[in-house]
């Protein structure tokens, strides 16, 4: 029974990795938000499952927190933001998907290699998933580097947060409660500040294209 | 413990209060008053520690030990003097039309909250809370960087937010790994992230996990400290934000980020019994020193130039801690202290100089001595001090670092000397005409507050000539704790 | 090797020949329903085949013998492929003849012949279709191989029957690597069977067509064979997908009862799969031909990640 549960956690981990790849190859902003919501939901499911498999009730609480924050609040804020900024149908041009995918594979291999010796040491149900979590972090990182628009960058940032949260759940059954609350607060404040920012950028440049933000460079 | 509670509670309360009344004229004084009260509480805390030694409170949630106690005092002190400096500075900014009442409110509230996060990061015993506080420090200052709403300031703030957010996310991953290692030894009951508990069992922590954890930590907190490959946010944020913020970013945030790395280094050294952590720090440090020195020579903006100088000095500190051992650690801690004092003093002077000239471009600031002798002398003396001229404290600490490097890592000495030489030449070449020479600038409407500048310079001078015995004792204890 | 095995092999081929066109009809029916059109009969593909078989086959003047032979070769390949894929039973006399890699080879052989035949006449549409078909095949085949390797890694054999036996008859286990493989496989099958995001099976007069462009010159029984082969290909791909990702219900050796049960299970699974395909085709839009390499590269990389995940998780 437990073996099956842990395999199911592995499956959800793979789903997260797949969603990360879907996100780096998604050009539409709206679809990106949907993918992000889905990623949050997967994360919630994984957290609940780990909580159930290991009988750690506090994970239910953190799953609830994740649900409120990552599946309800932040997507809602993002939807409102894209409506008010009028970028709902924006499409990011100029991303070379096959190259990104190949680099992504490289990152996955790198992450797996890094995590392999450590995965063996972990006694948790989902020990193999640390490598996947690390791979997701790196993929989100890549997404942030390659995107030129503000909202995809923010989504990359948030999905990195998701991956980290998953790492915490998979490797250690979640951080201590007080830390988790602190992280949730930081994320919430962060997203509010980002919202303010996007309006400021828009006001200044009439566009959410980060390529406008390239004046400050070393000559 | 009341003093500790008030050190944390006062800035938090101040931040909340100023969020409502921060736009009033009196807010500048309220801001300074809160910072002063925090300083008093920190001094009470310090005397308590001098009398009865380190302690922990509230279920080990917070602690004071030799490593953080002087940083707490320093943070409260620089926080207070910067609040003093910002009184006339912000008044002038408002008169120039750069600060609206809403922006004033944001500024005052965020200033106190920033101080709160710094103090929280320093005093918490929990590595997770340390992370939370570091992230909160970014959040508190990011809107201040973009407060002028110019294109450049928005860009700087966006970079600051994204780069530090990404960086700090790496540190979170490191923290998760650390917790994973700790859980195997301490069990999952609460205290596995408490630094004191970790320190007690550091020999049993799994070396593989700790190695990976430290790599992520140094990348993450190193981003905030401004280590070179991940420093890009720092010059922009310093140059585009209001000057008091530049002063506290350079004077405080960099210290606290370095402090976080040091905490991780102690654990990693204990688990690994190798010099890996130290080597990494030396590598990042040396790279930062050398790269920053060459970047300095190409700057046109005065605040950018001094921001790069901060990167250089943080690199020097990281190098010192990386070398390790009692002398180098002592020198690193001393350098931390004097750099905070003098760099913030320089930013105070630079802030008024830029207000005088109406620009931050160095070639357009000329003859400060004519127009405002205090600003001119403040800038000149500060520059000499930061460049390591005797008898200022920077000279003492740099001398110690260099002599230790000569003994332990001789190959690094020429690089360091070269970098320091380049930095000296480029900074001095730029500052000299700014201070001396003819001027066509207008005097300021309100007298500049340069008392903080000279107090800081005085302290920096004192530390170069004489270190009070209890301070030296702390340094020695802290240096022993950091180990090598 | 016994009579039962030969019986199940024969039954399988027969079922494939019958269910293939039915599956095509089923998908078309559902597509029509989802698009608010009057649904055609389920047996329309059979009627079309019948009609084509009794019509005279017209062949272009300068067509070479290759042009006439191609439909038979293609049809033969597809029948053989359907014989290899374990749809009803894993006890198949033909199965040792070819493993998963040979299966991919069979599909490639059919592709080569149909492309050659398309170029044989020398019309512009034929060559255009052939070129595009080769482009897709060139990208899809490695991805398909990777998908099959992911499954082979689990069962440690490239024989399809062994894979299905391992997946269906061992204790229940979830393989995350198969999740990646299944997504990749779906993408590859859509491309290989000329379904919507890559090609549109219902248009004849668009510059974007691929499969239809190649068979424009065929008529009569040749066309019938090619159409039948196309439905067999869809059937074979569906069955590979079912065998790899939903293998439950396939009969083992020496189990005549299970064989009887296996047929309704297969029909049910195909019916559900057909509806899913129709829904997918209705909601998605056809992509530009230049996007197809991107699409297939993604499939390939997903399959590779599946293998990596398998290695990491070491299930």
Provide key terms for this protein.
heterotrimer, A: 219 residues, mainly alpha, 7 helices, 0% strand, C: 315 residues, 71% helix
Radius of gyration computed on alpha carbons of chain B:
21 Å
Largest sheet of chain B: 2 strands, antiparallel
Query: Could you tell me the number of beta strands of chain C?
Result: 0
Structural shape of chain C: globular
Q: What's the helix count of chain B? A: 19
Strand order of the largest sheet of chain B: 1-2
Q: Tell how many strands the DSSP assignment of chain B holds.
A: 2
Low-confidence spans of chain C: pLDDT under 50, at least 5 residues?
A: none
Short summary:
The complex is a heterotrimer of chains A (219), B (484) and C (315). By secondary structure, chain B is mainly α. Chain B has 19 helices and two strands.
Describe the structure.
The complex is a heterotrimer of chains A (219), B (484) and C (315). Chain A is mainly α and 219 residues long. Chain A has seven helices and no strands. The mean pLDDT of chain A is 81. Chain B is mainly alpha-helical and 484 residues long. Chain B is built from 19 helices and two strands. In chain B, strands 1-2 form a two-stranded antiparallel sheet. Chain B is globular. The longest helix of chain C has 32 residues, at 3-34. Chain C has helices at residues 3-34, 44-54, 65-84, 100-120, 124-155, 160-169, 176-192, 211-214, 220-245, 256-283, 292-313. The mean pLDDT of chain C is 85. In chain C, 71% of the residues lie in helices and 0% in strands. The chains are: A mainly alpha (219), B mainly alpha (484), C mainly alpha (315). The interface between A and B is large, with 48 and 50 residues.
């Amino acid at each position: 029974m437990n073996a099956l549960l842990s395999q199911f956690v592995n499956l959800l981990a793979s789903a997260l990795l797949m969603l990360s790849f879907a996100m780096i190859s998604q050009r539409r902003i709206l679809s990106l938000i949907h993918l992000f919501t889905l990623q949050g939901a997967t994360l919630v499911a994984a957290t609940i499952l780990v909580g159930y498999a290991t009988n750690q009730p506090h994970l239910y609480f953190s799953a609830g927190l994740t649900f409120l924050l990552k599946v309800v609040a932040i997507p809602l804020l993002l939807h409102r933001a894209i409506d008010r900024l009028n970028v709902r149908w924006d499409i990011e041009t100029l991303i070379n998907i096959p190259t990104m995918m190949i680099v992504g594979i490289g990152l996955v291999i790198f992450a797996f290699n890094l995590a392999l010796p450590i995965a063996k040491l972990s006694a948790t149900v989902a020990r193999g998933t640390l490598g996947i979590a690390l791979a997701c972090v790196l993929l989100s990182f890549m997404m942030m580097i390659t995107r030129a628009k503000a909202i995809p960058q923010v989504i990359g940032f948030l999905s990195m947060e998701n991956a980290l949260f998953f790492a915490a759940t998979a490797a250690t059954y979640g951080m201590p409660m007080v830390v988790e609350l602190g992280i949730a607060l930081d994320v919430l404040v962060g997203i509010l500040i980002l919202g303010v920012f996007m309006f400021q950028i828009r006001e200044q440049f009439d566009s959410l294209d980060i390529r406008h933000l390239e004046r400050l460079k070393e000559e | 413990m009341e003093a500790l509670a008030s050190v944390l509670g006062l800035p938090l309360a101040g931040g909340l209060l100023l969020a409502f009344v921060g736009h009033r004229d009196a807010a500048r004084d309220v801001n300074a008053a809160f910072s002063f009260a925090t300083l008093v509480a920190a001094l009470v805390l310090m005397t308590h520690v001098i009398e009865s030694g380190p302690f922990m409170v509230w279920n080990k949630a917070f602690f004071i030990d030799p490593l953080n106690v002087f940083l707490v005092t320093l943070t409260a002190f620089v926080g207070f003097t910067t609040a003093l400096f910002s009184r006339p500075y912000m008044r002038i900014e408002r008169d120039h039309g750069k600060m609206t009442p809403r922006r004033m409110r944001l500024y005052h509230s965020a200033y106190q909250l920033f101080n709160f996060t710094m103090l929280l990061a320093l005093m918490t015993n929990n590595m997770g809370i340390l992370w939370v506080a570091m992230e909160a420090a970014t959040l508190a200052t990011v809107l201040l960087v973009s407060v002028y709403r110019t294109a450049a300031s928005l860009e700087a703030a966006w970079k600051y937010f994204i780069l530090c957010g990404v960086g700090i996310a790496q540190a979170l991953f490191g923290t998760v790994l650390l917790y994973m290692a700790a859980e195997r030894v301490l069990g999952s009951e609460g205290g596995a992230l408490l630094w004191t508990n970790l320190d007690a069992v550091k020999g049993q922590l799994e070396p593989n996990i700790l190695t990976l954890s430290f790599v992520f930590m140094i990348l993450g907190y190193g981003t905030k400290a401004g280590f070179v490959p991940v420093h890009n946010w720092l010059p922009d944020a310093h140059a585009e934000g209001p000057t008091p913020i530049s002063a506290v970013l350079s004077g405080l945030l960099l210290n606290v980020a370095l402090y976080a790395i040091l905490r991780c280094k102690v654990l990693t050294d204990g688990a690994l019994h190798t010099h890996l952590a130290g080597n990494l720090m030396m590598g990042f440090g040396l790279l930062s020193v050398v790269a920053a020195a060459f970047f300095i020579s190409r700057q046109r903006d005065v605040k950018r130039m001094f921001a790069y100088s901060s990167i250089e000095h943080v690199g020097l500190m990281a190098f010192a801690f990386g070398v390790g051992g009692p002398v180098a650690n002592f020198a690193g801690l001393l350098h931390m202290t004097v750099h905070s004092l003098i760099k913030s003093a320089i930013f105070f002077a630079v802030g008024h100089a830029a207000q005088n000239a109406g620009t931050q471009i160095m070639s357009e600031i000329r003859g400060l001595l004519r127009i405002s002798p205090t600003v001119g002398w403040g800038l000149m003396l500060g520059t000499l001090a930061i460049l390591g001229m005797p008898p200022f404290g920077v000279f003492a600490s740099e001398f110690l670092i260099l002599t230790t490097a000569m003994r332990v890592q001789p190959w690094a000495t020429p690089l360091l000397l070269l970098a320091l030489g380049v930095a000296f030449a480029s900074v001095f070449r730029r500052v000299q005409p700014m201070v001396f020479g003819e001027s066509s600038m207008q005097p300021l409407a309100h007298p500049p507050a340069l008392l903080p500048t000279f107090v800081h310079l005085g302290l920096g001078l004192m530390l170069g000539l004489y270190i009070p015995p209890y301070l030296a004792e702390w340094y020695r204890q802290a240096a022993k704790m950091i180990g090598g | 090797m016994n009579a039962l095995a030969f019986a199940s092999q024969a039954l399988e081929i027969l079922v494939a020949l019958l269910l293939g066109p039915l599956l095509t009809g089923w998908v078309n029916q559902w597509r029509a329903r989802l698009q608010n059109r009057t649904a055609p009969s389920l047996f329309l593909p059979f009627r079309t085949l019948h009609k084509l078989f009794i019509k005279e086959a017209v062949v272009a003047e300068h067509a070479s013998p290759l042009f006439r032979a191609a439909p038979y070769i293609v049809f033969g390949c597809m029948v053989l492929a359907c014989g290899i894929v374990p749809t009803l039973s894993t006890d198949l006399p033909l199965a040792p003849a070819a493993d998963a890699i040979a299966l991919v080879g069979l599909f490639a052989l059919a592709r080569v012949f149909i492309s050659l035949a398309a170029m044989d006449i020398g019309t512009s549409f034929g060559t255009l279709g052939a070129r595009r078909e080769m482009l897709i095949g060139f990208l899809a085949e490695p991805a398909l191989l990777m998908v099959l390797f992911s499954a082979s890694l689990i069962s440690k054999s490239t024989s399809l029957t062994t894979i299905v036996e391992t997946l269906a008859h061992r204790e229940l286990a979830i393989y995350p690597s198969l999740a990646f493989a299944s997504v990749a496989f779906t993408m590859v099958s859509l491309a290989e069977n000329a379904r919507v995001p890559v090609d549109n099976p219902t248009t004849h007069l668009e510059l974007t067509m691929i499969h239809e462009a190649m068979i424009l010159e065929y008529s009569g029984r040749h066309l019938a064979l090619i159409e039948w082969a196309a439905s067999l290909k869809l059937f074979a791909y569906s069955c590979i997908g079912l065998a790899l990702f939903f293998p439950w219900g396939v009969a083992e050796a020496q189990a005549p009862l299970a064989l009887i049960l296996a047929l309704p299970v297969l029909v049910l699974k195909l019916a559900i799969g057909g509806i899913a395909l129709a829904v997918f085709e209705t909601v998605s839009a056809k992509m530009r031909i230049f996007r197809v390499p991107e699409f297939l590269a993604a499939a390939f990389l997903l399959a590779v990640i599946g293998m990596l995940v398998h290695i990491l998780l070491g299930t």
